[in-house]
Structures are given as structure tokens and as C-alpha cells.
Amino acid sequence: DIQMTQSPSSLSASVGDRVTITCRASQRISSYLNWYQQKPGKAPKLLIYAASSLLSGVPSRFSGSRSGTDFTLTISSLQPEDFATYYCQQSYSTPLTFGGGTKVEI
Amino acid sequence: EVQLVESGGGLVQPGRSLRLSCTASGFAFGDYAMSWVRQAPGKGLEWVGFIRSEPYGGTTEYAASVKGRFTISRDDSKSIAYMQMNSLKTEDTAVYFCARGTTYGDPNWFDPWGQGTLVTVSS
Q1: Which residue of A has its CA nearest to B42?
Q2: Are the C-beta atoms of residues A74 and A65 closer than 8 Å to each other?
Q3: What is the distance in angstroms between the Cα of A97 and the nearest Cα belonging to chain B?
Q4: What is the four-CA torsion angle of B91, A27, A20, B114, rounded to 10 degrees?
Q5: Contact A98 B107 (CB under 8 A)
Q6: Predicted confidence (pLDDT) per residue in A16-63, tens digit
Q7: What is the pLDDT of residues A4-18, one digit of tens each?
Q8: Does residue B66 contact residue B42 with C-beta atoms inside 8 Å?
Q9: Which residues pair with B73 in a beta bridge?
């Protein structure tokens, strides 16, 4: 199984901060990496697919990148509505696996 | 508007069965893979399984933790995906989400998701 190691598990930030979340795959997954945002009591929402493609309607302050088996989600200027938990997910092979999540707090 | 609505959750005793439904609207259901993902209370997301669209054989894949106990099926005429859960264990307690995959065979990503339905396995 492909393990997805997400870091940090939590972070504290302020409105306007640049925030970076990292996800490392245990083996090569090409660009089969997606990022989701989840707010308490709500379903996750897709933000980025295929490592760096921004889903239509998602603010451009969100971006994704890949370097080998390391993937990064960047929020360029954190907004109040961005405080949430973020998950990466690989779709290279089954079992599909998620990272452990990063909680972004004030 | 693309929408997914799960139903069928509830309280069930260990060893019993439950069937979840995911009713879709707003898109060509038969063209898409459909997935189930669960989230235990206070925990992260865990993929449970998916079913491919009929053009890709309508075949299924499951996580090891549920393989042999859970069965995913689909009724494209009704735009509904099902998940039959047998031999339920306390560790199956979670919110179960259905999510639309892609039209590429395997669900390369999940978008959108339903609101989720809570399954509680307890005596």
C-alpha cells in the first residue's frame, strides 16, 4: 500500500499568512495526488487535482505543486474561511489512501 | 446542480447488516465511477471502495478492512449507488460519504461528496 505522510498535523496561522502543507508518498505516484478541504461537520471538498490543477471555482490563492514524491499545497494569503483541515489523497493505485490531515487553526 | 444524498445510516448491533444508498442528481450518473469514503469520529478519511461505470465493466475495488464484508453496487436507471455492509464491527462506526469519481474508469479524484450518513455499530 502507498503511505501518504502529511505534515504538519496542525499549524497556527493568521489571516494574510502564506501557508504550506506537505504530503510525501511512500513510492512514486506520478501526479496522481489530490487535495481536499474539510470544515467541521461538513463533507470534504476537492481543491486541487492531479497535483497542480485548480478545481473550477476554487480561489486562486490555493495552489499545488510536485517535486518527485513530495507534494505541496500552498495558500498564498490565508483567509478566515480557510481555517479547516486539509487532506491529501493518492489515486495512483488501490487501495486509495489519504494523508492524516493538517488542521489549520487561528 | 450536481448533488449526492446518502441515506440508510443508523444504529446497528455488531454482526448485523445495513445498506446505504447514495442518490445522485444533476449529472449523467452512468458515466461516472462512484466511491465510498468513511470517517470515524474525530479521525481522518478512509477510502472504503468504489465501483467503476458500466463502460469500464462496473467492477469494484475495496479496502482490505472491508473486503468480503461490504459490497458496492449501482442502479444506473435510478442513479443510485448502494453499499451493503454485512458482519458489521464496532470499528466500522463512522460517517460514510459517497463521492463521485471520474469518467476515466478509476476515480482519479472525488468531487463532489454527499453530506454523509452516520453508521453506529454498538450493542
Answers
A1: A40
A2: yes
A3: 6
A4: -40
A5: no
A6: 999 999 999 999 999 999 999 999 999 999 999 999 999 999 999 999
A7: 999 999 999 999 999
A8: no
A9: B82
In chain B, residues 27-46 whose CB comes closer than 8 Å to chain A: 35, 37, 44-46
A–B CB contacts, 8 A cutoff, strictly below: 61
For residue B23 the three cell numbers come to 442518490
Ranges of chain B with pLDDT below 70:
none
Is B108 strand, coil or helix?
Answer: coil
Reduced to 3 states (helix: H, G, I; strand: E, B; else coil), residue B54 is helix
B121: its cell numbers: 455499530
Question: Could you tell me if A55 lies within 8 Å of chain B, comparing CB atoms?
Answer: yes
**CA R_g for chain B:** 13
d(CA A22, CA A4): 10
Question: Which distant-in-sequence residues (6+ apart) come within 8 Å of A89 by Cβ?
Answer: A4, A33, A34, A35, A36, A96, A97, A98, A99, B45, B47, B109, B110
List the single residue in A32, A43, A87 with the smallest CB-CB distance to B44.
A87
Q: Residue A57 corresponds to which cell in the numbers above?
A: 471555482
Give the strand pairing for B18-25 and B80-85: antiparallel
Distances (CA, A) of A20 to A6, A102, B46, B58: 11, 10, 23, 38
Cell of B76: 444506473
Question: Is A44's CB within 8 Å of B64's CB?
Answer: no
Rounded CA separation A89/B72 (Å): 21
Query: Residues with Cβ < 8 Å from B74, sequence gap 6 or more?
Result: B29, B34, B51, B58, B80, B81, B82
